[in-house]
Structures are given as C-alpha cells and as structure tokens.
Amino acid sequence: MTTKEQFRPEDHPNDSFLLTTVVGSYPKPKWLNRAKELYQDPDHEFDAEDWQEAKDDAARLITDEHERAGLDVVVDGEMRRTEMVEFFAHRIEGYEFNGPVKVWGHNYFDKPSVVSEVEYDENWLVDEYEFTAAASDRPVKVPITGPYTLANWSFNEAYEDDEELAYDLADLVNEEIEKLVDAGARYIQIDEPALATTPDDHAIVGECLERIVADIPEEVRIGLHVCYGDYSRIYPEILEFPVDEFDLELANGDYEQLDVFKDPEFTKDLALGVCDAHVAEVESVEQIEENIKKGLEVVPPEQLVVSPDCGVKLLPREVAYGKMANMVEAARNVEEDIDAGNIDVERGAPAPADD
Amino acid sequence: MENIKHWYSLAVRTMTEYVSTTPGLFPLPDWAKDDLSDLKGHQKGDLIGGDEGEEITAAYEEAREEVIAAQEDAGLDRVVEGQLRWDDMLAHPLAVHDAVDTQGIVRYYDNNNFYRDPVVQGELDFSGDVASELESASELTEGDALQAVLPGPYSLADLATDEHYGDEADFLAAIADFLAGEVEAFPAHETLFLLEPSLIENAPEDGVDERASEAIDTVASATDADVVVQPYWGALEEKVYAHLLDADIDAVGFDFVANQEENVYNLQEYGATDAVSLGLADGQNTLVEDPEAIRDRVDWVYDQIPVTEFETVYLTTNTETFYLPYGKFEEKLAVLAEAADLAEVKAA
C-alpha cells in the first residue's frame, strides 16, 4: 500500500481515488495586506496581537475555501508566509538581511545572506500546522522550501560552497519535519524550484533528501515539487530520490514534456499539474478531465494525484477558487469513468527501442 | 641600446596603471525600487520601452545622479552611467528598439533573474537610446573619466531571437553593425566595456568563434576609447580566447572569482592584450572583500604568468552588480577603489 490511501476520505464516492490537493500558496485576501500595512505603520495602534489575529483569520478562511472547493488534502494557502526563502531565513540562525534584490522588472525579494553556520532556532511551521489541522477535518499538507533552494537563493558568505550549506540546511529541515510529525503531520511537500535553474545538481538534491527523510516514519508521505524546467535533464535520475511523490508543472507547457516520464517507467506517485497557475482563466471541467487523463498515460490511477501546476498566489482569488472547484469536479468525473471501465488505464508500453 | 631597452622596460613596469571600475548594470537605490515599481507596475508590459514619461524619467535621473555620486565618493577611476533603466539587463539595447517585439519572460543565464525575450522582426537601424543615457551621465561626471557599457555583439545575439535576418552569421553581423552605430553616437568616453558572458555560457563553436571576434572588432572600431571585452561566469575556451585576441581591442577581462585555473592557463598559453581587466571582487555575493585581499589577488595573478607588466590593469567586480542589495553594492565600489590605490602604491 502506498502512503496515498491514508488520505482517502471516508465518504469518498468512487472506488478509484485521485487525491486532489494544491501546491501551497493561494491569493491573500486584500484585507490581510491592508492589515499588514497597518501593523507596519508605527503611528497606528494596530499591534502584534491584532496582526496575529488577522493571519489566523486568513488561514482559517483559506483552509475553509479549500474545503469548500472539495479538496481531499488542504493547505492554509501559506497566509503567514511572505516569500518562500525569506520566511524560513527569518527563522534560521545564521541568516541576515541586507535589502531587496531584483528578480525581474520591478519584482524584488529580500535575498538573505548566510553569514555564519546555520542553526535551528525557533520552530518554523509547527504552529501553522497545528492551527490549520485544528481548523479543518481534512488532512493537511505542509509545504516546506527545500534546502537546495534555501541555499541557492541566498548569498553564501559562510560556507565553502552551496553544497555544504544545502546539506546543513537539510539537517534543519529534517529536524523541523520530526517536530511536524510529532504534531501529527502526515503529508510533507519539499519545494525545490531552484533545481530547474541548475538541473545538473540533482545529485545534491538527492543527498539533501536522504538527510531530510532520515528517521522519518515510512507512513509519512513526502513529496517533491519541481517547476519550470527541462525535466529531461533530471529524469529518470530523480526516481532514486527517497520520496513518495513528484509534483510537476506540466499544464503550462501543454504536456509537451509528458513523454519524458514514460520511459523508463514512473515508479513513484505523480502529482500532476492539471491547471495553469499563470493563466488567469478558469479551465473548464472537460479540459481538466483531459489533462488528468494525460497523467494516466504515465501512471495507473493508484499513483495519480491531481493539483495545479504551482502555487496559485498570483491569480485573482475568484479565479484560483474556480480552478480548485473545477479540478475536484473533473477528478471525481474521471474516477467515475475509470470505475465504469470507460478509460483505458493500462499504461501505454514505452515505444520499443531501435535495437 | 640594450641598456636603454632594459631601463625602458623597468620604467614601464613601474608605470602600470591600476584602474578601478565596474561593468555597470547597478542595482537601483531602494527608494527608486519603490518609486519606480509604483510608477511603472510589476507586469511584463510595464517594463521600460524607451518612451517613458516625465515622472519616470525624473525618477531615473535622480537615481542616476545618486549612483554617479556614489562612484565619485568611492573614488573609482571610471564612472559608468549605471544602466538603471536596463530592466532586461544586457538585452536592453534590443528590448527598447522599434524593430524588436519583447515576448515571453526567459531566464537570464543560470540566475534566478528573468528578461523579456527580444524578438528581432525588422532592420536593426540606429536607436540612440544608450547614447542619450550617456549624454545625461556625461553632464554629471564633472570631468571624471566616463565609461560606456554595452553588451558584446555575441552575447546580445545569443540573448535575442531572430525572425528577420534568417541566418545566424547575418544576424550576428547585423547586431555588431547596430552596436557600432550606437557607439558612434556616444559622447566622449574614456573606456568602453563590452560584456560578453555568452562567450563562456554558450561558447561559440568552430567558425562562429572567429565571427564572434570579428563582430567584437566591428563594435570596437567605432570608438577611439579603450575597449575592454569582459566575459564572465568562468573562463573562455582556449580557441575562443585565441580568436578574441585577434580583435582590435585593448583588454580582455578575466573572471577570477568563478575560475582561477583555466583563466591562468589562457594567460600562460596565449599571452594577453597590453591591458587586462581582472574580475576579482564578487559581483554576486554580499561578502565584502578586504581591499588588501584584492591587492593580493592581483599579485597572485602576476605570480602565475610569464608577463611581468601590463600597461593597464582594470580592477572590477567579475559580473554586473544588480544582483546585490544597494548597501553592499556601495561597499564593493569602495573596496575596488581602495584596492587599485594599494596596487598602485606597491607597484611604484
């Protein structure tokens, strides 16, 4: 049995189960941004306690929105997080901030500098997890920025090279996951977008993951999210990674890269991106059904999970919700079709080699 | 006669000029990041088009004044305009061209940075965009030696997509002619830096390496200023380096931050131009080097190679500096200026 079945809802309507979830981030309600401005305004009486309450409200709201959309596994939409590196760097001893740097155009982020050996300081996500778990009856997934990305998207002033830094950070991620598991978390997703920039470093990411999963109980589901890259440069090598699931962005490229995963056989679970996170138009249920069927060309239903391509935080909130709702409807329809025998789920045999 | 030659060579040795400079493409001061993102927006269509209105122009003018003052305060020997408007980094001269359509957002080399793919759809005639920036800068530099900065033709062609010329060689030649035309319109400048990271990151194949060198020659011939060709993110393949030495340029740059061994090898095996540019401070890391350490690295380079003197040694960051937070960028400027002073003292 894979780690996926434990997340099947008791009242799941179909025999087949295509777990539906999200990658993580979700549009923040406008009032949360306004609350942040008030909190940052020294002349305003909106204080730390008020700010905490605002974040709690937002986390509850978005978790609830995920439930309403029908997702099997929910996230709080990362309402408490700023940017995916910044958030963690603020909680790790050894990091300092020197100001914003450009990513593109006038989009900046506070790229932190590692100035001394990194150490575990305050907990990162346990409070967030406990809050979300209490706010929902559904299982909760916890996305964590991976150590390779944390290393690669920081200035490294203290370590011989980024590889050494990544391994030290991996040990800290391991420590955090242990705490999350103690708190009840069973579904962890490691986000490694930096791997797309430097695909040749897949072995470093593999070694990081070995450290991350050390002594983590087997029933805990570990996923890896990689987006926006040339997957042929990391496949099939990534099949060696000690994870249960790969969460991949494929809708954005219209499944051009799908064939990459057909040969050799995809031996892990595939969390397939079935909605484009960068197009502000809700895909129809029929379109998403077609996308889900693409996944069945790679893995059987037992190994398939459906989610959007990537975090949806840049979309208008109503569009993000529309995508979630249609995605769940499409997944249920495809499950019914599979149960009824209307879909050929025999994975297409890889094209025979020339020799 | 022998004696005279000997004394002459000693005199030259003591006369190596150390010139502190940068490859330009600075980070915006933090206030300008805020103001300009409010004025321009955050989306693809909001990036610079070369036809910006009064308010945006005014913000850039104020930021330009600030970075020129920062270079003067630091005591750099060359002052650049700062290229603060270059939203698309080295692709900027094409991104603002009328015959170019800026399309999808693509990755800028192996960095977590992105630019708009400039798709060339017509004849690359004269633009004057960079010349007008330099005019504004030269009004501010108060006699300090102005340094112009451009992408080298090979890198600019590599960053762009051609839908007009149809042939790789014709496209490269057209880009070179375009850049040469731009340079001819520049106000007086002491030095021209041509940034050529693609020569390393996407090294030209046999035959193309020679054409890359000819293209550089075309651009370099358009100015009387000293021309420095600065490749970075590693070392040139030896054939590419050998061809580059054939171009009529004054200095080749070496990225000693990213790669020491192969850069030294090229210097040992093929020699060098009379001037060199040494990328010794890291343009992509907030760790601020000691000026003494930079000076020691200059000595280290000298120790590795048979040539004992260069006419001019440019001391610079290895890459552009827009990767850095503004405060760290300013600190790097001061380090370079001080390192050049230290090297000069020691040499004399």
At a glance:
Chain A has about 350 residues and is of the alpha/beta class.
Structure characteristics:
heterodimer, A: 355 residues, alpha/beta, TIM Barrel, 7-stranded parallel β-sheet, 3-stranded mixed β-sheet, globular, disordered C terminus, B: 348 residues, 13 helices, disordered N terminus, UROD/MetE-like_sf (chain A), metal-binding (chain A), amino-acid biosynthesis (chain A), Methionine synthase (chain A), 5-methyltetrahydropteroyltriglutamate-homocysteine S-methyltransferase activity (chain A)
Strand count, sense and barrel status of the largest sheet of chain A are: 7 strands, parallel
Q: How widely separated are the two ends of chain B?
A: 25 Å
Q: Provide the helix percentage of chain A.
A: 25-40%
Show unreliable segments of chain A.
348-355
Query: Could you give the distance between the termini of chain A?
Result: 36 Å
| Known CATH architecture of chain B | Alpha-Beta Barrel
Q: What's the rounded overall pLDDT mean of chain B?
A: 93
What's the alpha carbon Rg of chain A, rounded to whole Å? 20 Å
Task: Indicate how many domains the architecture of chain A comprises.
Answer: 1
Count the beta strands of chain B.
Answer: 11
Low-confidence stretches of chain B: 1-13
Q: What oligomeric arrangement do these chains adopt?
A: heterodimer
CATH class membership of chain B:
Alpha Beta
CATH class of chain A: Alpha Beta
